[in-house]
């Protein structure tokens, strides 16, 4: 029977490989996010299905960026209907509907999380954002994109200004190693990649004197007060903060 130590070692090895493989891409992604902060613009984040877990990780989260605008549609969340969520992200035209509320512009950046990287919703988000002059950070798996059936005119890898590769194998599962069936890694790796970007943004931003807008936990002394200023600034332009 597998031990917790074996699983932990496997995950640690995956994260180490991901960090090494994405060193240049993480720096490039941090460059884009720093540009957003300098321009007092927004980082738009999006995903579908279980990739929405990564979107939640970017939004209104202790230690996370405050200048984040999450793109969302209820039908994309499996908790609102598992089978229908799969159908929804394969529906062409949904990206335009979601962007009708507010779309990224030339000073903004769109971050799209999608492990398969081939369904119409995430791909069309990238296409529409790039038409408007926004850069795109694609968080995906090159191996999964290569193995998945094409369902749109392009892929997330092709549309990304910067591509962060989760190195997740097709099917997402990681255990047992010789024939993976369970222990999916994409959620863990997506959060790790985003945190690598945030760490660089903080270090490099503060070194140049930028005020990096970061949320504080509401459960630490002074957290509510620190967050109140950010809510006052971003609440009007990010409706889901209200």
Automatic annotation (TrEMBL):
Q: Which NCBIfam families match?
A: PRK02947.1
- Give one Pfam hit by family name: SIS_2
State any single GO MF term. Answer: carbohydrate derivative binding
Q: Which SUPFAM superfamilies match?
A: SIS domain (SSF53697)
InterPro entries recorded = RpiR-like_SIS (IPR035472), SIS_dom (IPR001347), SIS_dom_sf (IPR046348)
Name it: SIS domain-containing protein
- Output the GO biological process annotations, alphabetical, semicolon-separated: carbohydrate derivative metabolic process
Q: Which domain of life is it from?
A: Bacteria
Where in the numbering of this chain does the SIS domain appear? 33-207
């Amino acid at each position: 029977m597998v031990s917790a130590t074996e699983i932990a070692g496997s995950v640690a090895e995956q994260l180490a490989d991901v960090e090494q493989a994405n060193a240049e891409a993480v720096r490039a992604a941090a460059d884009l996010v720093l540009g957003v902060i300098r321009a007092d613009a927004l980082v738009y984040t999006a995903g579908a299905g279980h990739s929405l877990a990564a979107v939640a990780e970017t939004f209104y989260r202790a230690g996370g960026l405050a200048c984040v605008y999450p793109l969302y549609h209820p039908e994309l969340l499996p908790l609102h209907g598992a089978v229908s969520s799969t159908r929804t992200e394969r529906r062409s035209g949904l990206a335009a509907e979601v962007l009708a509320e507010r779309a990224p512009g030339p000073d903004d950046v769109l971050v799209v999380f999608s492990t398969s990287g081939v369904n119409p919703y995430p791909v069309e988000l990238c296409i529409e954002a790039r038409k408007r002059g926004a850069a795109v950070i694609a968080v995906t798996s090159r191996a999964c994109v290569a193995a998945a059936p094409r369902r749109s005119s392009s892929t997330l890898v092709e549309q990304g200004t910067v591509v962060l590769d989760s190195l997740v194998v097709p099917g997402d599962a990681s255990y047992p190693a010789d024939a993976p069936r369970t222990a999916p890694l994409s959620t863990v790796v997506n959060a790790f990649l985003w945190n690598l970007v945030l760490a660089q943004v903080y270090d490099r931003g503060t070194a140049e004197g930028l005020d990096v807008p970061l949320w504080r936990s509401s459960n630490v002394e002074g957290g509510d007060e620190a967050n109140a200023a950010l809510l006052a600034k971003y609440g009007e332009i990010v409706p889901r903060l209200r």
